[in-house]
Amino acid sequence: MKELEELRRQIDSIDEKIVELLAQRMRIVSQVGNVKRRLNQPLTDEKREEQVRLRWMSLAQKNGLPETMVDSLLNLIFLYSKIFEINPSFLKKVVVVGYGGMAKSLVSLFKLSSHEVIVTGRDPYKAEKLAKEFGYAYMDPAQASRWGEFVILALPPSGVLSDFVKGVFPHFSGKVVMDISSSKQAVYGYLEKASSEHGFSYVSVHPLFGPYLYPVGEKIAVIPSKTTKDVDEVIEFWRNCGLVPVKTTLEAHEKAMALVQVLPHFYMLGLSRSLEKLRKEFDVDFTQFETTNFREIYKVVKRVNELKSVILEIQEMNPFSREVRKAGMGELENLFHELDGEKK
Ligand SMILES: C=C(O[C@@H]1C=C(C(=O)O)C=C[C@H]1O)C(=O)O
Fold first, then answer.
1. Which range marks the domain in which residue 105 is found?
2. In this structure, are 30 and 151 located in the same domain?
3. What's an example GO BP annotation here (predicted)?
4. Is 80 exceeded by the pLDDT of residue 342?
């Protein structure tokens, strides 16, 4: 017991040094950012990253550490370096309307990249609670919208279409307004029209990740509209938050989501139901026998069930849903007959 405690004390003291050194590295990275801005150079320097990587690899080899470990650590360090290099003059006043999982995920990113943030929403208490968690403040929706430069509608489509948001439209004038819905069908045309009536710049975005904290390195789809003034500024903003922006069109986005969300979710819901049905029929607890593949698959099945309301909403709203589900069914049937045929 004593021996374990002593070893853990040593680990704690080393961890302290690692964190201090990382902080020191990030402070210098931030100075590099200043120099690059003065010299008008891009923040990412792939050649330099390659040199750093080679140097780490050789140091790791000398010290008996696996290359894969160095690789993962460096990927993370490079990612965060970009955030620490951010142009302070690029920092934005961001209003987050909403306090759900995705609102929280985005606020955590904004915090990481030092943007100024106000959280607002229909329920002031819930909005204030989220704001305070990250050291930010609440303002009422009208006041917040006048204060902000970027307004993020982190709401489900029903929220975007509500009278609550409609009432705030007049205060969006001159701002950049973004929705984050995964299915754009209901909201895109509506917000585009509102933006031209109320004089705001509308850009639709879709974070391609779930409601997790600090989703650095994940992708975000960016869909300009007729009223989008400066899409490059928006792309730069999301890049500076540590995300990877993917510029696209409404149609390409909906088609891609039909393949990336509608079809896999459809299969997963079907799999979930079949498993439940067969579990009863066979009277067997399959979870005791899970294999490596099954464990991964079942994790997804469970997540899909947890997010069922959002998932059903996407099934309902994506304009290509029916077509994609039909194709999916057809292929399952083909497969069924093929496999049946092989048996005979
Ligand atoms: C810090 C720099 O900026 C970026 C971050 C790097 C790093 O973390 O080592 C390396 C290259 C750049 O992409 C730099 O150019 O030195």
1. 88-248
2. no
3. tyrosine biosynthetic process
4. no
Tell whether 271 and 221 lie within a shared domain: no
Kindly state whether residues 290 and 142 are assigned to the same domain.
no
Tell me, yes or no, whether 100 and 243 share the same domain. yes
Domain boundary, last residue among 84, 103, 134: 84
Confidence bin at 103 (pLDDT 50/70/90): very high
Centre of ligand 1 from the C-alpha of residue 16, in Å = 23
Mutate to test the pocket of ligand 1, among 35, 37, 45, 51 (most ligand atoms within 8 A of CB): 45
Report the Cα–Cα distance between both ends of the chain, in Å, rounded: 64
Choosing from 213, 248, 283, the residue where a domain stops is 248
Q: Please give the pLDDT value at position 166.
A: 97
| Mean pLDDT to the nearest integer, 191-204 | 98
The residues lining ligand 1, judged by C-beta closer than 6 Å to any ligand atom, are 29, 32, 44-45, 48-49, 52, 77-78, 81, 85
Each residue's pLDDT tens digit, 83-99: 888 767 778 999 999 99
Provide mean pLDDT across the span 107-115: 91
pLDDT at 344 over 70: no
Do residue 160 and residue 261 come from a single domain? Answer: no
